[in-house]
Amino acid sequence: MAKNKHGAEPNLKGTLVSVFGVGIIIIIMWFATYFLYVAR
């Protein structure tokens, strides 16, 4: 079990980085939309 968990760790780290990347893109899009709305 320990070997299997250790093997899945890099994949899990890559998934975490992907989730943070997508989240940051969504937050940037929300701020861009908000500032466009406020500047109108």
Task: For the structure shown, list the relevant keywords.
40 residues; mainly alpha; 1 helix
Mean pLDDT: 85
Largest sheet: none
Specify the number of helices.
Answer: 1
Which parts are unreliable, with pLDDT below 50 for 5 consecutive residues or more? Answer: none
Oligomer: single chain
Count of strand segments: 0
The end-to-end distance, rounded to whole angstroms, is 57 Å
Task: Give helix and strand order, one letter per element, not per position.
Answer: H
Structural class: mainly alpha
| β-strand amount | under 5%
Could you characterize what this model shows?
It is a single chain. It contains 1 helix and no strands. By secondary structure, it is mainly α. It has one domain. The protein starts with a helix and ends with a helix. Keywords: Membrane, Transmembrane, Transmembrane helix. This is Cytochrome C oxidase subunit II.
Offer a concise description of the structure.
The chain is mainly alpha-helical and 40 residues long. It has one helix spanning 2-39. The mean pLDDT is 85.
Describe the secondary-structure layout.
Elements: H1 2-39
